[in-house]
Amino acid sequence: MVGAVNAGQRLGAKRIIGFTVGDYAFNLYWQSVSLYLLFFYTDAVGLSAATAGLIYMIASIFDAAIDPIMGAIADRTRTRWGRYRPYILGGTPLVAIAFMLLYYRPPFEGVWLAAWMLGAHIIFRLAYTIVSIPFTALSARITSDSGERSVVAGGRIIFATLAGFTVAYFTQPLAERFGDDDPATGFFWAAAIFAVVASIVLPIVFFATQEPAETGEDRSPHNLGEYWVALRENRALWAMVLAACAGVICSTAIGKSILYYFKYYVGDENGGRLALTLAAASGLAVVPCWVMVTKWIGKRNAWFAAVVLGLMGLATFAMFDVRSTAGAITFFLWMQVAGLGIAFGFWSILPDTVEYGEWRTGLRTESFVFGLGQFFLKVALGLGAGLYGWLLERIGYRANMPQTAETLANMKLLMTALPAVGLVLAGAIMIFYPLRGRMHEQIVREIAERRSSGRVSPE
Length: 459
Known about the structure:
Layout: H1 13-20, H2 22-45, H3 49-76, H4 85-102, H5 110-141, H6 146-179, H7 183-208, H8 224-232, H9 235-266, H10 269-297, H11 299-319, H12 325-361, H13 366-394, H14 405-430, H15 439-452
């Protein structure tokens, strides 16, 4: 079977670890952007919340727009090292340099400062896309076994969790250590350290991972028209990405609120760092639990379980005035469990939609599917961050100043209302996801039978 490793060929622990460790490197970048960049813009660089949110939104939408393009380029790439691995090795230094620029504050003010921060953000997103889209596409190419993909998805999230722990625990101490009373400089050197570590890890993926040889049996689209044909019939993909986009609203509003909530609502800025660290560390226990839950009740039902868990947490948080560090940490940990369930569901399910699309159309679009999936996620993330920054300013937020009681009350409302809407939509849309039970295994077998008989397209 071409286009993915044969379902009967097991990857083994070394190859799974060699591939999934890449998520540690990628999430040193991504978790930093998700957890600290908006806060860096407002409380270190000095941008207004609305401007910071707008920069984040524009860069995220740009990032989203180039994801499918990079996916199409990667799908057509043919080298002796494979389709995707060369991008991972060659792009490693590019993304490291771009990440350091992302946290560099130039000696500008006003419009020029905002323009620099936007330009640096766009450059980082471009470099990150060049490396990350081929990496994520590899998860569909190295194995077509749905159960093994769940193990790979679990491994990826565990390494992402370790990276999140690293970023949450070390960012602020490193910023204070190297800042010399200048938070922006401290953040820059923290970013430089993370970039060096990521640059050491990513080449491991290149050397530890193998792609199946190209024999021409699987057919990739040759133009945009064929890509549209391949995607139009992929109902599994559309249900997955739309449900995930709704879920991202939850993670965006909750994640962006943590540092602000502890600093201004609880009055314990160090508690925010502790919450981020514990939430990241919890993934080491939570992700294996979601792997087991998925094996027990299936990927689709596990998604519904995560949605219900998140809604229960939001309802409880809305009922009480949580002003203690312990109470706030408990809430964010609860939401982390639900968020990891949704994240695991997305990365476990998305590779399965590749075979569903191939089964329906005869066209295989691995990298483009991942590019399109990330396109929608990043648009949702950008819109969510932009909306959050705009609303934060509308409710009267002012950086490094005491907030009014009304501002604090509305800050809490943002943390509950937006995520609740996102979770409800994430659950409702997933009702229409067509892959249930053992349907994916049947699809993989049918595709293999077509190829063995020389018939690529469905009848």
